[in-house]
Task: structure prediction
Amino acid sequence: MTKTLTLLALTTALALPQLAAAQEITEFRIGVLGGENAQERMTNNECLAKHTSETLGVPVRIFTPADYDGVIQGLLGGTLDAAILGASGYAKAYLTNPDAVEPVLVKTNLDGSSEYFSVGFARKDHHITSLADMKGKVLGFGDPNSTSGYLIPAVEMPKQGYSMEPGAYFKDIKFTGGHEQTIVAVNNGDVDAGVTWADGLGNWEDGYNSGALRKAVDAGLVDMNDMVEIWRSEPIPEGPLVVRKALPEDVKAKFTAMMADLINTDKDCTYGVAGGETAGFTPVKHDNYLSIIEARKLEEAKGS
Result:
């Protein structure tokens, strides 16, 4: 018996270094959702790559797929290690594989909330002031996996009497490819109105404090004085920063702690990563997204 225990202990001791080696990572890969041009996304997240590399001691690569699903599939397939997802994107990842990623942090607004809105907007000179003026006109959505750019409007607008079936109320529904593309399409008159995301805090002329409109203003793509808000959703939970569940626990802990403290160590970096003014990132759990997961399930059931 003693000999057997000794052999077991020796075998375990020999296996521990191999297990530790298997748990090490050689690089860390962060995905950034579509919605603005790839170079802009890379620029806004270069500082994040630097801070992450210093924290984890490995090279960090930033990936900017063309659409939301590129990031989601990267996380599901294990080719990405972390990303800030929209709530609907997280719902898709969870419904596809509940063991793929885990939510760890969420962006907070300056007022301490972790909510935002889907905002409908149009050019002021098109004389559209509400969805009541959109009958027979073209509405632009961003991405099928966007919470504010598709899921929430597709759920809430029909409840308010505005059918999503092309031709039933709106002349057509067009997917532009992302939030930035929607803003440009509205500004150029390619669609009559569009929906995007904003925290709804601060001034309209600034594109609010954070969100796609704020990013577009910062980039010089739009003058908000030329635009008007025509619709606003119920509050939406901010999407989570997720990490791949299979990562070593110490890697997840170090990365999460670094992100939670980023507002204190590099406020400018946090501004770029969060898409505008923010109070930083705070802990979040899966249960925060149960309502969005249910909405996503219902919406997918309609299309099946």
